[in-house]
Amino acid sequence: DAGITQSPRYKITETGRQVTLMCHQTWSHSYMFWYRQDLGHGLRLIYYSAAADITDKGEVPDGYVVSRSKTENFPLTLESATRSQTSVYFCASREGRFGNTIYFGEGSWLTVV
Amino acid sequence: DAKTTQPNSMESNEEEPVHLPCNHSTISGTDYIHWYRQLPSQGPEYVIHGLTSNVNNRMASLAIAEDRKSSTLILHRATLRDAAVYYCIRGGQGAQKLVFGQGTRLTINP
């Protein structure tokens, strides 16, 4: 009963490197989300997906790429990491549209040096 | 834009009730109101949600104003473990995404 898991939990990378954060859910939820949370701030939506092969931009998509070839996986890629992308990244999933509970992962702490 | 307004911070004492307010004056008739909370170093977790009527569950109660322009999350007897950031979020039935605001940081004093 893993639920929603993120990997890696902690990563330090260098400016300009490509980084991929993985997200896996075991419920077959149709919706998946990526949020970022900067120190002392609320969550901001980066990308979301309504189903496999369907993705859409959130509030802060620049510098990020997502894909969803399988329902259970929703990887987030930073194509060329910048220091401003140092943040905590949360993946989440939900069955159906608004009105149902969103379940969050434990977060991936990313530092770009 | 599905914005809500919450106080930045609130403080209460252990074993006392806590009332966390949320203003959503532009809410539409089909918008639900959800509350999530985020404990330190964890992802947010669901607390409660409602549409028009007041709602109760094992964690909290949600009181929704008659005009639905505001709501209040009620923790009946706060514990130290309730110290967290509480987010009030609104969205319609067809909404695909949730937009989080800044939330209210709740401090519980022993």
Alpha carbon gap, first and last residue of chain A: 35 Å
Main sheet properties of chain A: 7 strands, mixed
Structural class based on helices, strands and sheet pairing of chain B:
mainly beta
How much of the sequence lies in strands of chain A comes to over 45%
Q: Please write the string of helix (H) and strand (E) elements of chain A.
A: EEEEEEEEEEE
Describe the sheet with the most strands of chain B: 5 strands, mixed
Mean pLDDT of chain A: 92
As an assembly, this protein is: heterodimer
Order of helices and strands of chain B: EEEEEEEEE
What does this structure look like?
The complex is a heterodimer of chains A (113) and B (110). With 113 residues, chain A is an all-beta fold. Chain A contains no helices and eleven strands. In chain A, strands 2, 4, 5, 6, 9, 10 and 11 form a seven-stranded mixed β-sheet that branches. In chain A, strands 1-3-8-7 form a four-stranded antiparallel β-sheet, with no helix packed on it. Chain A is globular. The mean pLDDT of chain A is 92. With 110 residues, chain B is an all-beta fold. Chain B has strands at 9-13, 18-23, 32-38, 45-50, 55-56, 61-64, 70-75, 84-91, 104-109. Chain B has a five-stranded mixed β-sheet with strand order 1-9-8-3-4, with no helix packed on it. The radius of gyration of chain B is 13 Å and the shape is globular. The interface between A and B is medium-sized, with 25 and 24 residues.
List keywords for this structure.
heterodimer, A: 113 residues, mainly beta, four-stranded antiparallel sheet, 0% helix, globular, B: 110 residues, five-stranded mixed sheet
Summarize this structure briefly.
With 113 residues, chain A is mainly β. In chain A, 0% of the residues lie in helices and 50% in strands.
Break the fold down into its secondary structure elements and pairings.
The complex is a heterodimer of chains A (113) and B (110).
Chain A: E1 4-7, E2 10-13, E3 19-25, E4 31-37, E5 43-51, E6 54-57, E7 64-66, E8 76-78, E9 87-94, E10 102-104, E11 108-112
Parallel strand pairs in A: 2-11
Antiparallel strand pairs in A: 1-3, 3-8, 4-5, 4-9, 5-6, 7-8, 9-10, 9-11
Chain B: E1 9-13, E2 18-23, E3 32-38, E4 45-50, E5 55-56, E6 61-64, E7 70-75, E8 84-91, E9 104-109
Parallel strand pairs in B: 1-9
Antiparallel strand pairs in B: 2-7, 3-4, 3-8, 5-6, 6-7, 8-9
